[in-house]
Amino acid sequence: MRALIIVTVLLTLPTVPAAAQSGACRISVTGLTFAPYRSLNASPTTNIGRLEVFCLPGEGSAAVPVVTLSAGRSGNYVDRTMTAGSSELHYNLYAEPTRRLVLGDGTAGTVAFPAPRTRTIGRASWPIFGVIPPGQRVPAGSYSDTLLIEVAF
């Protein structure tokens, strides 16, 4: 029997009141929607999202924005989970394609988004590498998680 499992990771940004901003940033996030997960597949399910930030620096703001990512609903950076009801599907997000650097806030074995290798003045862009490990036996359903991205500029 085959079951298709549709999974989505939503990356969201909290809004900051204009009075609290020292400069101005425009932020664009391409979320991760994984291909249907098949528990019998021996290969991980992967996808790439993207975060783009364009900041006009204000007085005392950082030259390069510092960007961090929350742990999601699981509260665990190194073992993130998407849920469908009470079922959990484990996944994670990485700063690079070799899957060694877990994206987070720089604590608990994670890294904040690294300084971009190339950028134009005020603009930075980062890929987000998403991976669902193979071999998880979970019921069919639509699995999701919501993470917050914090940009300090």
What tags apply to this protein structure?
single chain, 153 residues, mainly beta, Immunoglobulin-like, five-stranded antiparallel β-sheet, four-stranded mixed β-sheet, 11 strands, 0% helix, elongated, disordered N terminus, capsid protein, Spore_coat_U/FanG, signal, virion
What does this structure look like?
Pfam families: SCPU. With 153 residues, this protein is mainly beta. The chain has a single domain, classed as Immunoglobulin-like (Sandwich), CATH 2.60.40.1090. It is 0% helix and 49% strand. The chain has a 5-stranded antiparallel β-sheet, with no helix packed on it. It has a 4-stranded mixed β-sheet with strand order 3-1-11-5, with no helix packed on it. A hairpin with a 2-residue loop joins strand 6 (80-84) and strand 7 (87-94).
Average pLDDT reading: 80
Shape descriptor: elongated
The total of beta strands comes to 11
Question: For the CA atoms, what is the radius of gyration?
Answer: 17 Å
The count of domains is 1
Uncertain segments are 1-7, 12-22
Major sheet summary line: 5 strands, antiparallel
* Strand order across the largest sheet: 2-4-10-7-6
Number of helices: 0
Helices and strands, in order, run as EEEEEEEEEEE
Under the CATH scheme, which architecture would be assigned? Answer: Sandwich
The percentage helix is under 10%
Secondary-structure-based class equals mainly beta
